[in-house]
Amino acid sequence: MKRSYTTQMDAARKGILTPQMEQVLENESISQGDLMEKLSLGHIAIPANRNHLNLMAAGVGQGLKTKINVNLGVSKDVCSFDAEMNKAKLALDYKADAVMDLSVSGDTEGFRKRLVKEIPIMIGTVPIYDTLTRTGKPTRDITVEDWFKTVEIHARNGIDFITIHAGLTRKCVASLRTNRRLCGIVSRGGAILFEWMEKTKKENPFYENFDRLLDICEAYDVCISLGDGLRPGAIKDSTDAPQIEELITLGELTKRAWERNVQVMIEGPGHVPLHEIEMNMKLQKKLCHNAPFYVLGPLVTDIAPGYDHITSAIGGALAAMHGADFLCYVTPAEHLCLPSADDVKEGIMASKIAAHAGDLAKGIKDADIIDNNMSRARGELDWDGQFDSAIDPEKARRYRKYSEPSEKDVCTMCGDFCAVKRVGELL
Predict the structure, then answer these.
(1) Residues whose CB falls within 8 Å of the CB of residue 333, separated by 6 or more in sequence, listed in order
(2) 8-361 classified as CATH 3.20.20.540
(3) 60-61 and 67-72 strand pairing
(4) Rounded to the nearest 10 degrees, how much is the dihedral formed by the CA atoms of 365, 91, 47, 206?
(5) With 0-12 CB in 10 A as exposed, 13-18 as middle and 19+ as buried, what is 30?
(6) Which end of the chain, N or C, is surrounded by fewer C-beta atoms within 10 Å?
(7) C-alpha triplet 241, 325, 13: angle, nearest 5°
(8) Cα angle at 63 between 235 and 10, to 5 degrees?
(9) Whole-number Å distance between alpha carbons of 347 and 165
(10) What does residue 293 show for φ and ψ, rounded to 5 degrees?
(11) Is 407 exposed, middle or buried (0-12, 13-18, 19+ CB in 10 A)?
(12) Residue ranges per domain, the chain?
């Protein structure tokens, strides 16, 4: 049966309640009318490729819970698709909202198909990387047809959202030359396109042929995640002219996508000091017309390799508080190596804590229920109740078992000096 709408945005504008919208309504404290209105305006996106048949759809945007994404994928040096699939299943087990495959070696299409078949949460990719892997060509020899064939393949494979660095124009590159950075370009996709543009002396193919990109995304209902090719990779580079120049372009492209009923998310920084995070969130929402904002971190200091899941969680909580809608997790392996399964778990937990803290701060309805359940259990010294309310019950139980108290209703930190026990008995 032929659908009477092209995309989730098109359906909302026609007043059609889709199965994907119904799934979002089951998991959010938002009314049907509010959801459809914000979808039609582009303030909420539901990435849901029509070929991702087992998808449990989720919404990203204003008034919804902050979502988190897990990056994974093979490299030339560490190329085990089975290990990456295990990471994807770990993301599912720990209730991440999305997985992005950033593979740059081997049978990438086979792995994508496997992800779509076995993983029922949103799946994203970066076709720019895969164009080099798929064709095996030097960057300068990639053709416009090569770039768009890869996008078409990813869309056909069932990918729900694709990162495309369409805002990295020659004008932005000129700004980068006159505003020198400590770290230059740290985005892989941005660096690849910059190299292609420099060596071919041509404009960004995705900017110059943006309507062609929209044709593909509209046909498969793929959400475009407009990538920040000039995101700052150093605190010193934060909120500089090249970053803002690109953001202005992304805002212009957002409007063009919405005119075609194509859903959009905007990707954001990067490395940002604490005092600039609120400004960055407000700038994005203003310049990109309140499109959902997807941030990497942001990392609030440059000095913590091995602990960047913490620097990211600090920034992510503040970003979510001030309007970010989607957090890309960062693991302890960031800047160092491909993450292990243990690193993935640490990154997921740090990001989930940041997202939830942000939801509490921005007043997402019912976000505090689980906190109240935890507090009630603590006040009653109900240890099973505390474990049930914990973001990681397994770890909480393990710590409890590791150091068991002589009195079972307290812990070994305070023992008989437990304030909760003493005051509870008096009250």
Answers:
(1) 339, 340, 343
(2) yes
(3) unpaired
(4) 130
(5) buried
(6) N
(7) 105
(8) 105
(9) 25
(10) -110, 125
(11) exposed
(12) 8-361, 369-426
Residue 36: pLDDT band (50, 70, 90) is: very high
Cite the DSSP H helix spans in 94-160: 108-118, 127-135, 144-157
Q: Quick check: 1 pLDDT over 60? A: no
Tokens at 127, concatenated: 């076709």
Question: 335: buried, middle or exposed (CB in 10 Å: 19+, 13-18, 0-12)?
Answer: middle
> Per-residue pLDDT tens for 6-29?
999 999 999 999 999 999 999 999
pTM: 0.96
Between CA 269 and CA 258 the distance in angstroms is 23
Cβ neighbors of 380 (< 8 A, separation 6 or more) are 424
Cα–Cα distance for residue pair 334/332, rounded to 1 Å: 6
Task: Quote the DSSP letter at residue 187.
Answer: -
Q: Is the preceding peptide bond at 273 cis, omega within 30 degrees of 0?
A: no
DSSP-assigned letters across all residues of 18-67: -HHHHHHHHHSS--HHHHHHHHHHTSEE----TT-TT-----EETTSPPE
The pLDDT value recorded for residue 195 is: 98
Q: Which residues contact 410 (CB under 8 A, 6 or more apart)?
A: 381, 416, 418, 421
Q: How far apart are the first and last CA of the chain?
A: 65
Ramachandran bin of 57, using left for φ above 0, alpha for ψ from -120 to 50, beta for the remaining angles: beta
Largest CA distance in the chain: 78
Dump pLDDT digits (tens) for 291-326. Answer: 999 999 999 999 999 999 999 999 999 999 999 999
The strand pairing partners of 124, in sequence order, are 100, 161
